[in-house]
Task: structure prediction
Amino acid sequence: MVSTENRRVRQLLEDFVAALTPTDHEPTLDELRGCCDQWMTTNVPPPPELLTEQVDARGVSCLWASMPGTSTKRTILYLHGGANVVGSAVGWSGFAAALSQAADARVLLIDFRLAPEHPHPAALDDALTAYRWLVETTSLRAHTVVAGESAGGGLTLALLTALHDAGDDLPAAAVLISPWVDMTLAAASLDDRADLDPFTSRAGLEMNVGAYLQGQDPKAPSASPLFADLTGLPPMLILVGTNDALLDDSTRLNDLARRAGVAVTLNVADEMYHMWPIMSSFLPEAREAVQEIGEFVRAHTNPSDYSTD
Result:
């Protein structure tokens, strides 16, 4: 049975959309980004005991986030959502705290460059730079999982395929939450789930595609990794809800990954909305999802020579 708190999720997402689309003026990018971060830190607040540290990953701004007592030997590199236009490491630090606790890991939040000032492939380039910096400075590739939600989930898959194509060492596994992996917007669920999803819409995504790609080919695998060759990628956990307008991106990705021989686990949660796991501060189903992510991360990071600090 779906929890009563799920109704609160729908209202919060409706409020979020209303804040991003005021009727009395055209919001600036700074207003949109400030609104997004305020919504995140209000509804997914970082606990006061969360430990954070700003770092420079060869020119890419990042934020280390970890709960006290968690190991420094296991890392989640996290790519936030926000349709490639809004979102920040600080805004997502509350969710990073939940992941850190569940997975016994440090979380490296990447402040990749945003569109429209920095169109594709700027975000992917920043993710590649940060991952390579992480591997070269910590030598913990086998203890690293790459993760992201929504557009950050698509960026996670694009990062994996770019690393594989370049011959880089791959992370141990990947977690994709409500991933947006097809910028052609061919998912039938965008229309089938339109009345169920209070947050994600075809019209909104079309605007974000324009801001991000600025005339580039939406079928390019680096932009829409659903069109990439997934052969040789590490194990994946995909989480999506039945009330998510991007549901078909997840189910099609699951099918494509299986055909490519990737070990993939798909969790389609009943009546959950877009990116529901981030709301673990109050939603029971989100807490369960975060625990599933934590168990997945622990299971796929190399336990040999593992020690806590």
